[in-house]
Structures are given as C-alpha cells and as structure tokens.
Amino acid sequence: xxxxxxxxxxxxxxxxxxxxxxxxxxxxxxxxxxxxxxxxxxxxxxxxxxxxxxxxxxxxxxxxxxxxxxxxxxxxxxxxxxxxxxxxxxxxxxxxxxxxxxxxx
Length: 105
Fold this sequence. Notes:
This protein has a domain at 8-72. It has 2 helices and 2 strands. The chain has helices at 4-40, 51-82, and strands at 85-90, 93-98. Strands 1-2 form a two-stranded antiparallel ribbon. Helix 1 (4-40) packs antiparallel against helix 2 (51-82). The longest helix is centred in the first third of the chain and has 37 residues, at 4-40. It starts with a helix and ends in a 7-residue tail after the last strand. The model has no long low-confidence stretch (mean pLDDT 88).
C-alpha cells in the first residue's frame, strides 16, 4: 500500500519533471524558430542544404543534444534532492519542509 508521503512525492516528481522538461524543450523550440530557417534550412530537404547549412545543422544537432543531456541531468539531480524533504499538500500547491540538514556542497 502506498502511503500519503509516497503519493505526494510521486505527484510532485511528475510535476517537477514535466515543468523542467518544458523549460528546456521550449527553449530549444524558440532557438529552432528564430534561427533554424536562417542557419540550417530547417524547412528544406537534406539534399537541398548548402554546405554552410549542413555545417550549422551539425552544430545545432550537437548543441541540442548537449542542452537535452544537461537538462535531463539537472532534472534528475533536482528529483534526488527533493527526496530530502517531507511533503504536505494544501489544495493544489505543495508545502515542503526539511526533514534533515541540507547542504549544497
């Protein structure tokens, strides 16, 4: 049987994961919208890209992967840190209290 803390923690973890993912996916989308057409021919077929666009496309793929990896790592770290807290819920917001000493070292 799942206790109240586990239910709250699972709910908060889902919420945190969703919000964090939205942050970095939204940022990537904004970059693609602003620079994709100009730099790497986002609307073109791969066969029709210029050499310059191919270079920028490869740079974009590398940068995108790096951003996703860093975002996912930070999300995992945040979820791990949340395990240090006891949770209680008031309506639709989460109230968090520390159940042990926490240091950011």
